[in-house]
Amino acid sequence: GEIRFHDVTTGSPNNNGFYIPSKEGNFQVTGGKITVDIPAGRTFSFHTTAPVYNLELNRLHGSNRTTVRLSGDLHVLNDLLIQPNTTLTAQSHQGDIFDLYIGRHFDLRDGAQYLAHTNTTYFNKNHVSRIYVRNTTNSEELVFHDLHIIKDQPWNPNVFRSVEVYSNGRNGDIPAIAVNGKLWIERGQLNLRTLSLSAKGNVEVSDGRIFSSDNSHPGRLILNGPDRQTLKGSPTRQLDFGFIELNNERADRML
Questions:
Q1: What span, in angstroms and rounded, lies between the C-alpha atoms of 149 and 151?
Q2: What is the CA 82 to chain-centroid distance, rounded?
Q3: Is the dihedral angle over the CA atoms 134, 225, 100, 150 positive or is it negative?
Q4: Residue 9 confidence (pLDDT) above 70
Q5: CA-to-CA distance for 110 and 99, rounded, in angstroms?
Q6: Hey, which residues does 147 pair with through a beta bridge?
Q7: Are the beta carbons of 222 and 203 closer than 8 angstroms?
Q8: 226 near 200, Cβ under 8 Å?
Q9: In 3D, which of 207, 169, 213 has the Cα closest to residue 185?
Q10: DSSP 203-246
């Protein structure tokens, strides 16, 4: 089923929201969708200790942007869709920063915005995930602070579930994603396909790899942070960082 917040116009522009403070063990989420339709210029707060399955954020009407603020860590078990002219920010009205967990796809439509601030965005669960960066009217990257991939282990420990990057029409020289903090693949694999990822901080692969499934126009990891960066891998695993472009004047080091 679907729960739809439609045309939220009553009260203060910052007075509307989704609030579920359930304790662990008092909820079970197996499907469904939460849709938030908010008029332009309004802010909607999102706080739930229970996960949601699918979440769609949408500006209903008007010319200004709509903003959805996290007021707690948000766990999306399946898909997160941010529609045009809609901003999802990890910062609450009080200035606190919260993390975002995504079980399957993250779809950022043309004109949508995700403000991670200093949070961590996780890709977890047992699905293959896709990150869609659909901004065709400009070339801005989808910016994460810390990006942490921790997919469930398949029955075969040598097989990894993927997080794949899509951005149709984008020149591979223009990164689709920028990670300002740490990029950590604790378990899983990051498939850049034909695209590049700009890493400003340290990169660690514990159990998995970074690679490109397109051999004719392979994507690459660009190390271009303002400070010295570290590439770190597990000494007990055969790891792959894929194609790497070094563009850091303060040098990089391998651990």
A1: 6
A2: 11
A3: positive
A4: no
A5: 23
A6: 121, 183
A7: no
A8: yes
A9: 207
A10: EEESSEEEE-S-SSS--EEEE--SS-EEEEE-TTS--B--SEEE
**Taken in order 67, 196, 144, 246, is the CA torsion positive or negative?**
negative
pTM exceeds 0.85 for this model: yes
Residue 155, beta-bridge partner list: none
Tokens of residue 170, six digits: 């984008």
* 198 exposure class (CB count in 10 Å sphere: 0-12, 13-18, 19+): buried
**3-state SS class at 109:** coil
For the beta carbon of residue 190, count every other beta carbon within 10 angstroms. Answer: 28
Q: 193: closest CA among 222, 156, 168, 164?
A: 164
Sign of CA dihedral 16, 60, 64, 78: positive
Q: Read off the pLDDT band of 28 (50, 70, 90).
A: confident
Task: Name the residue type at position 104.
Answer: R
Ranges 28-37, 128-137, 177-186, most confident: 177-186
Identity of the amino acid at 18: F
- Pair 202, 230: CB distance under 8 Å: yes
The three-state (H, E, C) secondary structure of 149-190, written as one string: EECCCCCCCCCCCEEEEECCCCCCCCCCEEECCCEEEEEEEE
Pick left, alpha or beta for residue 60 (phi over 0 → left; psi -120 to 50 → alpha; otherwise beta): alpha
Q: What is the mean pLDDT of residues 229-246?
A: 86
**Spatial contact of 28 and 3, defined as CB atoms under 8 Å apart:** no
- 8 A C-beta contact, residue 147 and residue 186: no
Q: How far is CA 165 from the centre of its chain?
A: 11
CA proximity to 57, closest of 48, 71, 72, 42:
42
